[in-house]
Amino acid sequence: MEATDLFVPHLEKHGYEVHLADSPAPYADPAFMAGVDVIVQCYTMGTIERAELQGLRAAIEAGTGLAGWHGGIADSFRNSSDYLHLIGGQFACHPGKHPAEEGAGTEQHNFVPYTVNMLPEAADHPITEGIGDFDLVTEQYWVLTDEYIDVLATTTQKVRPWDPWHREVTSPAIWTRRWGQGKIFVATPGHSVDVLQHDSVRTVIERGILWASR
Questions:
Q1: 57-73 per-residue burial string, b: 16 or more CB within 10 A, e: under 16
Q2: What's 1-213's CATH class?
Q3: Where is each ThuA-like domain found (predicted)?
């Protein structure tokens, strides 16, 4: 909840009434969802029931926005192919340091330096306008995607001597998606509070939430 709480003041500042939930259960309540302008989802892995997924999709198709970061949106509900279809990108891996390096098996072992590269399309987009490339040391998401996403920024996984792949792999790091009358925003950085407090990451997410909103 600490990560979600970072953005509550931002929403309240812009006039939103914020409701917090610890499960996707509200998605199955059509009366409640009809009054929701934007969902800020922070729910890694877990499962989603059929009625919850149907309610989420119906709300977005009717104009409710969906926004999130990192595993809270790009690694949610692996049990639902329809959810993956909705989001347009799925976390596959975050390759870490050399397997023999001290700390293997710990969370910190997955923290590597990488760059988020802004695309030309991002230069005048309301989410990313004025933001240049920036560097992070955290989990670098390798993402599986389809072509129906609008990518604003990417990150490239290098080939290191111990890696089994043979060429660099570029994944979207920030993207949007239109679904019915609704809009979806995804940023893959955001593993921890310190990453979310990075000026560029926080600005992108704050803008992305507002952009996705009805």
A1: bbbbeeebbbbbbbbbb
A2: alpha beta
A3: 3-212
